[in-house]
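Could you help me review a protein record that somebody else here produced? This is what I was given.
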Amino acid sequence: MNKINRHIIHAFLGMSSMAISLLIGGFFNNQWLGVMSCFGALTLMYYVPANQHKTISQLLIVDVISILALPISALLAGSMFAILWIGMLAFISQYILTKEKMFGPQAFFILMINGMLSSLGQISIITRLLFALYIILGAVIATVFALIENWCYEKYAITSRLDREKFTYNIESMRAINYSIFAMLAYFIGVQSHLNNYYWLLVSAITILQAENIPTARHRQYHYVLAGIVGCIFALLIYTTIHQKILLMIIAVILMGIICFAMPKSYLIGNFFTTPIALILFKLVRPELGTNLIITRLIAILIGTSIGIVGVIAFDIILRQQKLT
C-alpha cells in the first residue's frame, strides 16, 4: 500500500465516506439522511498528518465539538439566539484549534455545518434534531475512514488530549474573539437578508477571517471569488443538463475525491469544487429552488468575503495599537 500515491488513497477514502452516506440515505429512501450525512463526512478534512502526534487529537476534538454543538444548533435554529450561538461556537472552536497549533481547516467546517443546521428554522424541531443525528452519523463514518488511513500510514496514537493551559488574553484569544465577532456579523446579515441558504455568507466570511494578515486575506478573497464564480458556472451546467439523482450523487462523490486530492496542494482548485458539490447536494433535496441557489451563492460570496476582509483589517489595526502601547 505504501507504493500507492498517498493523496489518491486519501481521496478514495473521502469518496467512500460520501458514497456510503448517500447509499445509507438511498437504502432508507431518505434523501435528507444521505445529504446531511455527506455534510458530516466533511469531518475527514480534519485528518491532517502534518499535525503529527496531534493528528488524531484534532479529529476527535472536532467530533466531540460536533456532537455537543449540533443538537444546540438544531434547537436554536431560526431564533436570534442562533446568531449568538454561532458567535460563541466560532470563538470556542477557533480558540481551541489555534491554541493547540493544529494545522487544517480550523473552525471552518464546524461553523459551516452548524450554520447550515441553525438556518433551517422553517423545519420542525424534531426534524432538525434528526438532521443533527444524520450529520453525526456522517462524521462517525468519516472518522472511521480517517482511523483506517492512520492505521495504514502514520500510526499515530489515538488520543484527544489538550494542552492544559489556562485561558490567557494573548494573540490567539484576540484573534478568536475577532473571528467570532465577524462570523456572528456575517450570520446576522445573512439572517436579515432572507436569502435561501443565507449561512453561505458565514461560510464566505470565515474563509477570509482565517487569513494571517491583510495581503493573505486579499489573495484568499481573490481566489475564493474566482473559484466561486467558476464553480457556479460549472454547477449551472449540471443544474440545466443533469436531473437524474443517481448521476448527481456520482458527480458529488467524484467532486469529494477531487477536493480531498487537491485541497492540500492548491486552495484555489479545492475551493473551485466546493461550490458545485454544495449546490449539487441541495439540488438533491430542494430541487424546487432551481438556479436561485446559484445566484444566492454568488451574492453570499461577494458579501461574505467583504465582511471577512473588514474583519482582518480590524484585527490588523488592533494588533498595531497593541504594539504601540
